[in-house]
């Protein structure tokens, strides 16, 4: 059973962004599985590395759309991205120092998905839809 399931309420209506959000759900579920099964440090690091790399890729994708569609809240959304990425990088540093962060990062990721996607990303989706971009 998955820790988080993708639902239609999570869709912003753009296939590439929705696919990327689904990938985040997969990363969260892999993180939970690695934690529950006592995966090796290498396996846990692989999931954390995937999260960092994918977050950078995803944020860049969204920010390209913000520029393309002249999203009026670009600066605030980019600041939110920077804050989220900084938090994940801090988790990575703590992991490298030997801290057990699995439960803390799971709570963070679940909150991130529900807060960031359902609040901040839906805000730009509404703007894109109301202007006929999607």
Task: Characterize the structure shown.
The chain has 134 residues and is an all-alpha fold. The chain has one domain: Up-down Bundle (Four Helix Bundle (Hemerythrin (Met), subunit A)). Helix content is 76%, strand content 0%. The protein has four helices and no strands. The longest helix is centred in the C-terminal third of the chain and has 29 residues. The mean pLDDT is 91.
Helix-strand layout with pairing:
Layout: H1 15-36, H2 41-68, H3 74-96, H4 102-130
Helix pairs in contact: 1-2, 1-4, 2-3, 3-4
Strand percent estimate: under 5%
CATH topology: Four Helix Bundle (Hemerythrin (Met), subunit A)
Rounded average pLDDT? 91
The rounded Rg comes to 15 Å
Low-confidence stretches: none
Oligomer: single chain
Number of domains: 1
Q: Fraction of residues in helices?
A: over 70%
Helix count, per DSSP? 4
Q: What's the end-to-end separation, in Å?
A: 33 Å
Shape: globular
CATH level-4 homologous superfamily: Hemerythrin-like
Largest sheet: none
Number of strands: 0
- CATH architecture group name: Up-down Bundle
CATH class: Mainly Alpha
Structural class: mainly alpha
Element-level helix/strand string: HHHH
């Amino acid at each position: 059973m998955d820790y988080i399931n993708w639902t239609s309420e999570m869709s912003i209506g753009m296939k590439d962004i929705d696919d990327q959000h689904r990938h985040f759900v997969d990363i969260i579920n892999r993180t939970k599985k690695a934690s529950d099964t006592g995966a090796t440090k290498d396996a846990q690091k692989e999931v954390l590395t995937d999260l960092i790399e994918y977050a950078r890729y995803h944020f860049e994708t969204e920010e390209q759309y913000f520029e393309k569609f002249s999203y009026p809240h670009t600066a605030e959304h980019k600041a939110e991205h920077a804050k989220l990425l900084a938090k994940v990088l801090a988790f990575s540093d703590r992991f490298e120092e030997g801290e057990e962060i699995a439960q803390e990062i799971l709570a963070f990721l679940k909150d991130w998905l529900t807060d960031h996607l359902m609040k901040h990303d839906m805000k730009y989706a509404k703007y894109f839809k109301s202007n006929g971009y999607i």
